[in-house]
Amino acid sequence: MKILLRRLLGTATIIAILYSCASIGRLEGGPIDETPPHFIASTPLPGALNIGKKKISILFDEYIKLEKANEKVVISPPQIQQPEITAVGKKVVVNLQDTLQHSTTYTIDFADAIEDNNEGNVLPDFTFTFSTGSILDSMVVSGTVLDASNLEPVKGILVGLHADLTDSAFLKKPFERVGRTDSRGHFTVRGIAPGKYHIFALKDVDQNFFYNQPTEIIAFNDSLIIPTTEERTRQDTVWKDSLTIDTIMSKQYTHYLPDNILLRCFKELKYSQRLLKSERLNPQKFSLYFTAPADSLPILKGLNFDEHNAFVIDQPTGRNDTIHYWIKDSLLYKQDTLKMSLTYLYNDSLNKLVPRTDTLKLVAKNKPKSDKEKEKKKKKKDEEDMDKTQFLPIDIYAPGTMDVYDYITLSFNEPIAKIDTNAIHLRQQVDSLWEDVPYEFSHDSLELKRYNLFADWKPGGSYVFEVDSTAFHGLYGLFSDKIKKEFKVKKIEDYGQIFFNITGATYPAFVELLDAQDKVVRTVPVVNSKADFYYLNPGKYGARLIEDTNGNGIWDPGNYIKKQQPEMVFYYPQVLEFKANFDLYQDWNVTSKSLDKQKPNELKKQKPDEDKKKKNRNGQNNRNTNSRR
User: Fold this and answer.
1) Alpha helix stretches (DSSP H) within 535-593
2) CATH of 39-230 among 2.60.40.1220, 2.70.50.60, 1.20.120.420, 3.30.565.10
3) What is the number of alpha carbons within 13 Å of residue 378 lying toward its C-beta?
4) What is the pTM of this model?
5) Is 429 a residue whose pLDDT tops 80?
6) Which of the 8 DSSP states describes residue 378?
7) 436-440, long-range: CB < 8 A, 24+ apart
């Protein structure tokens, strides 16, 4: 009996050990398959001529799957009716829905959509070609599409060619040959006949293959595209093993040009002026929102009230497209409904600005409580709540550690009716005493409800900012409470500086200093080919230069009808890093590198898909390894 128990126990132990070593999924022990699928055969054959059937079947050496075929697969000439593209076992089947064009080369560019079914190994740049005529066009052009405003690679945008060289072709006719950008912004257009072409990029919202929507992103090239070829030689290495070279062979091949087309895409500023919406979220204020900026305010006339001197007008954008009307008189804002006529400029059916008058009825969504409701609520309050004094809310920006270039900001949630400037105090500590220092207190140039206090801060100095109670009187009767903020100003040694010496740019221009997330930290104009940034906190910075063609201080997109390209943007090709009390002097030739190679990878938001897949695969392999331990 003891012997039998020992045998059973030993068998159970062996089973337990074997079970603990097992893992769910792929059997381990062999090398990971990193080979993509291989083409075996097709119907019709690749490059076949005089084809009249719309079904294409392509066979591979292993089971395959399609990754986002509707997004990645591009067919030329472009198909108005969406083709059916499916993966069945080891086959890819394409059923074209459009009528085949006479004597035309068809290319089906799968990009990286084909993967093996198990490991997801990608078959890159696979293209299938056939012709409905007796000639197979084989010219190829390629290049890169960038966002014109920040040089980001643009993924998934359509790139098309027109042999019709009239300006209206892009606006009225589908492309003749098309390609699509990958995650690096790179595109290839294949199956092109010899000739001259215009090239465009288009974020084709309505999928009609021409530019007819104001929201579509576009790019165009000022020069004609003329496809050509040249014979080149490359060196192919044959290895005996992983360390020993057998032979190096020279092979000739045909290279297609141009291969470095650069398209800078943008969205045109196409404004259609109209009243977007009107609202009255609370009794004291109503707002008007327009779809485009205007040169002047709309004309407002009260129908059940007198509009003269009735409002404080707030324009947060400064462009008359968003307007807030703060109602001064309590008798007026207690009205349930405000009726008014509004006259403004409006784009008619011919896109001409004409006067238009609308009648508005604005009802307060949060109506003021009646006197009876207020009295009832007041009785329910306990004595502690009744004794509380309600002050005018203020949001104060006065950090405990102040930058030498910074300033104090006071933000309110309603317009201010009156300010007692004598109640505002700024003092600096000198030895053991606090001494008054001069300052400038002014209304913000853009925000109606914001005020700023500027002073000539002494580096390393200690300050106190104080405001006496009732210094600010709000439009609706509330007074401010007292304020006290103490802070220190940073020392000069806490900062660093960057000085750019710029060549190759066209002026006027300005430089934007960027943080590690490609957001603007500070902007300075280029003066005498120099852009200097003082008092920078230690860290990493990028920089971009904008050629400000119209001198308005902002980047402007292009216009296709006017043949106006977007303003040029250049990136400093490195991310700069420095510590406190350190100065950097950088020479910057903005044209020393092509635009597609300027923006540092650290600043790019659009990362290559293959890098993401490699990272995911490494992560999966690590998980598999850990599961076996």
Assistant:
1) none
2) 2.60.40.1220
3) 8
4) 0.83
5) yes
6) H
7) 437/463
